[in-house]
Amino acid sequence: MRAPGIARIVSAALGLFIAGTAGPVAAEPAPGPSTGPGAEPQAGTGDPVHWVRTLQLLQDRVAAGSLAAHESQPLLIARINADLLGAPPEIWGHRNNLRSAITFALSGGGPAILRRLTARDGLGEPEATLARGALAYVEGREAEAKRLLQDVDTTDLPPTLAGAIGLTQASLAVTEQPVRAIALLDHVRLLLPGTLTEEGALRREIFTLGQTGDLRKFEALTIQYLRRFPHSIYAGNFRQRLAYQLTQFDVGHDEARFATLNRILNELRPDSRRDLYLLVARAAIQEGKTASALRASEKALALCAPGSAEAIQGQLYRAAAEIVNLATFQSGSRTLRSLDRAKLTSRDQLLLDTALSTAEEIGRGLAGQPGLPEADSASRPARTAPDPADGPASLIPKAQATIDRIDLMLSRATP
Predict the structure, then answer these.
(1) What φ, ψ does residue 251 adopt, rounded to 5°?
(2) Within 10 Å of residue 59's Cβ, how many Cβ atoms?
């Protein structure tokens, strides 16, 4: 007998998404009436087809940004898992039920039901292969999962199962065959528009495109994601990863690449745009991309209220990039010393400390060099041009080496 508390919570969760669901639905419609030998049962309130449809409806609310749906998901999965394991053996003689169980396992349901099904005889094909391959994938046996699933043709499968298998195939292919993974994800996201499956396929494809260096399609799909799933529960993590990926494209390298960043971020509200420019600037500092850090921090500062914590952040990132260049070293160093560290996060306080230490080290190198400003002097142009033969140019590699140490410290401090 189920705990009444869990039953009440699950019932509340079902009411939440049934009342709030709009747009395309992940699951196939219930099979229509049919007669004759071997006819599939209609989906009712107590069969795997209905249970898995219920889970997918809830997951689609997660893609729309429902925190309540997200928090209810583990309870619903546990309830469905228990119902599947407790179902009478005869229901597994119907193909729709088998396919729903495979979809459930690949949608976060875990391996328990697949272990039971794969121990049975007479599952038939392609369900037997799909169940074994899905079980191998869920249990982390990727080589076996790839052997069983990589060549499966999903054309004749129901959309939800085809989507789950397609996402799995793409995950198995992404490291060694990113182009194939992109093609699979293209198919999945077109198969189930408006669902969590599409949202997940779109996120994965965007970062796989980053792996291949296709900036044009990366831009198009990123804009599509920001338009279609701005409130997804996973959007925050997406933006963090997006900032890192944009630095890998070195968007500050030239005007054309930076214009790509601007077009992407123009899809966001000003406050969200500001925050993502700050994320890009910080990621660029970590990656040693000073041009990207300078450009992104300037764009962020234009969106910051004077004296705000965000403005202090932007000034920090800009100054940390400026001290790598002799032409901007003095202004960057002065900015670092003027910042209110109380308005910075602990991670940014670490960046400030290491940047100040770097500036002092560079300043000691500058001190006494002919034709260069002294380390603690006010910013002013050099009285005479430095002579490369005297060694001032050697300070640039030294400064970059110090920034590399900042990157290392940040990477160790970043969870």
Answers:
(1) -65, -15
(2) 26
